[in-house]
Design goal:
Structural class: mainly alpha
Number of domains: 1
Number of helices: 5
Distance between the termini: 8 Å
Order of helices and strands: EHHHHHE
Largest sheet: 2 strands, antiparallel
Helix content: 55-70%
Strand content: under 5%
Strand order of the largest sheet: 1-2
Number of strands: 2
Shape: elongated
């Protein structure tokens, strides 16, 4: 007996909870965002070490404010500094998104952790701009320490949100019942 052909697609929609057709809750999105932000901050941390050890900020780039430092990092390079700056801006946007999702989850520990993460990332951005402006090693240290604070907050956020859903991915084309889509023998 021949089995009927069934079109099968794995549901990879990031706004769905695994194993269900339900929209992902704010808690699930906070968990995913926190994991992504952790990876991005670790990459940023490594890039920061490269910039600190191997890049000399041109003397013409020193002086000015935060926005001036960001513009000069993009315009005058070096490339590793421009990449570090660009990733920093993306991380800043991600932490704002994380805070908004945490507020929507209405869980106070997540709101506090996300707020501290955002403040640490903002502080790292300002000390990074100070480093570009002055070349001061203390500014570089401040940036590294604030990145560590943000990483710690994200790790605690992952702990607070708990493990991800353990249900298998939903398969489109089935009704969700164990015998659906199978032919009887």
């Amino acid at each position: 007996m021949q089995l009927p052909k069934v079109a099968v697609m794995i549901d990879s929609d990031s706004t769905k909870v695994r194993g269900t057709a339900q929209p992902a809750g704010h808690l699930e999105i906070v968990r995913r965002t926190s994991l992504g932000m952790t990876v991005a901050l670790l990459v940023q941390y490594a890039l920061g070490m490269v910039v600190n050890l191997y890049v000399t900020v041109p003397a013409r780039d020193q002086g000015g404010g935060v926005l001036t430092a960001i513009g000069r990092a993009f315009a005058n390079g070096p490339a590793s500094l421009a990449i570090h700056t660009g990733l920093g801006l993306l991380i800043l946007a991600g932490t704002i998104s994380l805070l908004v999702r945490s507020v929507l989850s209405r869980r106070r520990p997540l709101i506090w952790l996300s707020a501290v993460t955002l403040l640490a990332v903002l502080g790292a951005a300002f000390t990074g701009a100070a480093f570009v402006n002055s070349g001061n090693d203390g500014a570089s240290l401040g940036m590294a320490l604030l990145t560590g604070v943000a990483l710690l907050c994200l790790a605690v956020t992952l702990f607070v949100t708990g493990p991800p859903s353990t249900a298998p991915p939903a398969v489109r084309g089935t009704t969700g019942r164990s015998g659906a889509g199978r032919a009887s023998s």
